[in-house]
Amino acid sequence: MVIPSTTSAQLVADAYHPKDNPSGNNFYRKVGVSEGFAGTCVLILSNIRAVSKGRLIDLKGTMPGVNDPKKSSVFWEIKDRCFEFAFPKKHIEIYKLTQNNQQLEQDYNILQVEKNQLELDKITLQTENKKIEQDKNKLENQILELQKKLEEKNQI
């Protein structure tokens, strides 16, 4: 996959860059030396093309972050934007699935908190139930003792 680039001053000024121009044109991505390029240029993301390796003359450089496990590098940002332009329906589908997944994770976390609270309530109720059972047994014993005393009094 090849993304054409240009050093046109007008496009460099208009292109999106997260720090330099966050409100810039998203069809263009300004890149520079800090992102692994030889100099400042603009990638024309909407013009991504598939090209045979045999047609390439020579390798000009490599982008850092291709193997970034967090996928937080400029490479992954550009890859995601190109995917968005090349497959807009799939991008929307993935976006919706991601949103649904985030909502499900939030719901799960809420349910976990509720479950934990219910478990605490269960323990509290079990403790109270044991205390009530003990109190009941004490009262039954007291009633038995009082009945015995009453029977003894009545026999006198």
What does this structure look like?
There is one protein chain. This protein is rod-shaped. It is an alpha+beta fold and 156 residues long. The chain contains 3 helices and 4 strands.
Oligomerization category of the chains in this entry = single chain
> Alpha-carbon distance between the termini?
110 Å
Low-confidence parts? none
Sheet with most strands: 4 strands, mixed
Number of helices: 3
Radius of gyration: 36 Å
Helix content: 55-70%
- Give the overall average pLDDT: 90
Which shape, going by the Cα principal axes?
A: rod-shaped
Biggest sheet, spatial arrangement of strands: 1-4-3-2
Secondary-structure element string: EHEEEHH
Strand content: 5-15%
Structural class: alpha+beta
Number of strands: 4
Structure summary:
The chain is rod-shaped. The chain is an alpha+beta fold.
Descriptive key words:
single chain; 156 residues; alpha+beta; 3 helices; 56% helix; 10% strand
Topology:
Blueprint: E1 5-6, H1 9-14, E2 15-16, E3 25-31, E4 41-44, H2 74-86, H3 88-155
